[in-house]
Amino acid sequence: MSSDWPAWEVFVRARRGVGHVHAGTVHAPDATLAVENARDLYTRRNEGVSLWVVRSADIVTSDPDERHSMFDPAADKTFRQPTDFELPPDVAHM
Amino acid sequence: MPATMPAETSTEPPDSDGTGALLTYVLRQGDRSMVLAQRLLENLAHSPELEEDMALANVALDLIGQSRLLYTYAGQVEAGGNAEGGSAADPSSQPHDEDHYAYWRPDTAFTNPLLVEQPNGDFAHLITRQFLHDAFAAPYWQAMTASTDNTLAAIAAKAVKETAYHLRHSRGWVVRLGDGTEESHRRMQVAVESLWRFTDELFEHDDVEDRLVRQGVAADPATLAAAWRDTVTSALAEATLDQPSDAHMRSGGRYGRHSEAFSYLIGEMQSVARAHPGASW
């Protein structure tokens, strides 16, 4: 019967102040049940305080065949990374 | 009122002793949750979808958690004390633990309403049984958060959130299937017709409830009945299902008069504990 129920992507926010992170997929016949199924599958161990679901079919993805032109040019731009900055010794949690 | 009470689990309406009434009342609620959970777990791996199996298992685990708290409290009440530090009848005696009430009572000692023991049929039947129960349990635990019995109020504070979710889930299915396809509508109407006769019993009251309602310990069945009917009437209307007539209501579960199928359910539930007494896992 899974073919009858569309797939939904599930995003969980672990706590206030952080973003929703992709957790996995559920099957559900409608949006209401998608949220309920996501709750039962992905927040049963206290993982979250908020849920998003979106139909998998509505996700627009980058083209895997274009991945080299999409992502490789960032590989040698180390000046975009903060690794060359020296942290003052008093700064914690960086 | 005598300070002590014979430590027995009676299914008869209790006498005028307050401890007996409270014990009977707590066991009725514990049995309701326990038996419904057992029926749900019988269905494990038979739901229409894996996701729904998870959902119903979660519901069952919530219900078992509620019955564990209630059975544990029953043990304290039966031992003659209560959670607020009342003096035990015999300080050296150990109260019954939760397993005693689940595994070591005969089927005729269980006092759950007949609705929750009804055998699983198709999914429409299962979810209708759940909905008719949840429409009772949600306002029940809401009301019990104001109980003058601190232990019951504390259990209610936990259960009220769980049952509110159960109701949301089962009500959603009732509407989804009732107002679904021709076949799902037909099955839902059959389920509602076959289970309706067990709904009156949820609101029965005898000396136990009457006494505890007066003391502010128990929720008033009359108030709960009104809330239940509002919930059910609106859901059935939204689901385009006909509400059956109230004729031929059944009862007896609270006095240990159960269906034949119930004995098999309890027998299976108790078989491991009885084959290996005292085992832990």
Task: Compile the SSE list and pairings.
The complex is a heterodimer of chains A (94) and B (281).
Chain A: E1 7-13, E2 20-27, H1 31-42, E3 50-55, H2 67-71
Antiparallel strand pairs in A: 1-2, 1-3
Chain B: H1 18-42, H2 50-78, H3 98-103, H4 114-117, H5 123-144, H6 150-178, H7 182-195, H8 207-214, H9 221-238, H10 260-275
Helix pairs in contact in B: 1-2, 1-8, 2-6, 5-6, 5-7, 5-9
Can you characterise this structure?
The complex is a heterodimer of chains A (94) and B (281). With 94 residues, chain A is an alpha+beta fold. Helices cover 18% and strands 22% of the residues of chain A. Chain A has two helices and three strands; from the N terminus they run ββαβα. Chain A has helices at residues 31-42, 67-71, and strands at residues 7-13, 20-27, 50-55. A three-stranded antiparallel β-sheet of chain A has the order 2-1-3. Chain A is flat. The termini of chain A are far apart. The relative contact order of chain A is 0.17. The mean pLDDT of chain A is 90. By secondary structure, chain B is mainly alpha-helical. Helix content of chain B is 61%, strand content 0%. Chain B has helices spanning 18-42, 50-78, 98-103, 114-117, 123-144, 150-178, 182-195, 207-214, 221-238, 260-275. The longest helix of chain B has 29 residues, at 50-78. Chain B is globular, with a radius of gyration of 19 Å. Mean pLDDT of chain B is 91; it is low at 1-16 and 82-88. The interface between A and B is medium-sized, with 15 and 12 residues.
How many DSSP H or I helices of chain A?
Answer: 2
> How many angstroms does the end-to-end distance of chain B come to?
41 Å
Number of helices of chain B: 10
**In angstroms, what is the radius of gyration of chain B?**
19 Å
Terminal CA distance of chain A: 48 Å
Mean pLDDT of chain A: 90
| Helical content class of chain A | 10-25%
Computed structural class of chain B: mainly alpha
The residue fraction in helices of chain B comes out at 55-70%
Assembly status: heterodimer
- Estimate the mean pLDDT confidence of chain B: 91
Sheet-strand content of chain A, in percent, reads 15-25%
Largest sheet of chain A: 3 strands, antiparallel
Categorize the overall geometry of chain A. Answer: flat
Largest interface: A-B, 15 and 12 residues
Structural class from helices and strands of chain A?
A: alpha+beta
Major sheet strand order of chain A: 2-1-3
